[in-house]
Amino acid sequence: xxxxxxxLGREYPAPEAYEVTRGKIRxxxxxxxxxxxxxxxxxxxxxxxxxxxxxxxxFPVILGMAGSALALADPDLGVDFSRVxxxxxxxxxxxxxxxxxxxxxxxRITDIKALxxxxxxxxxxxxxxxxGEHVVTAGMMLVVRGS
Amino acid sequence: xxxxxxxxxxVGTQIPEQTFPVRRLDLVRYAGASGxxxxxxxxxxxxxxxxxxxxxxxxxxxxxxxxxxxxxxxGDPGSVVDYSVRFSAPVVxxxxxxGAEITVGGKVKAKHDDGTVTxxxxxxxxxxxxxxxxxxxxxxAQ
Lengths: 147, 142
Fold this sequence. Notes:
heterodimer, A: about 150 residues, Thiol Ester Dehydrase, Chain A, 4 helices, about 35% strand, B: about 140 residues, alpha+beta, 6-stranded antiparallel sheet
């Protein structure tokens, strides 16, 4: 097994908090071709009861990707990134992300296993607001294809 | 935007199907917005060198389009409580003006007492089922 099993449970706190901005939400919404006014227009977001524009449900992948990049950059973990494909993805929300959020994230390696000549590594990124409120947990399973 | 209410929905209620185009430009834009610059999503030479038929879409792009079918239906993207998918086949995106298409549909699988429903989603591209075990739990208006 090329992935080091000793890394199971290891945690990678992001070195700095992630600030959710209106501009980044707009950029992401445009990239997925979803111009829902709740993402773009503060008045529309307020009409649905939000204090500012909210982010699309898959926006927190940005946090998950950054967290998994911290883990995968560790050469002793033993993941060959050129052989990685995305296996599955999940999000569990306590509330939507909104412009102005300053999120602290920690990414943890929650599973490492071999399956049919491939290896699977699962990472979970938990994002909390500045007051400690849970906002979202993003789970990502990566398949490291066998050679 | 109209919002669907919990009382309007039953197990088996269909969610309107939508089809989304995916062209190379969409993948470049998504790479920039998401920070996922894996070359299998924009470099045909690299994609083929690792055994793929061509450039493939980011799985997360497909997940975003599939999620949009749910959020367009509920009328409130903040209604999503849980959303998970498995990527079962790649969306292959040729280098032409048409690109590929992803067709997404869904239906209500379960209705819960806390005002939420579970929606099962299907997503197909080029005849392949590109998402498996795709489901969302959404909170509907009362």
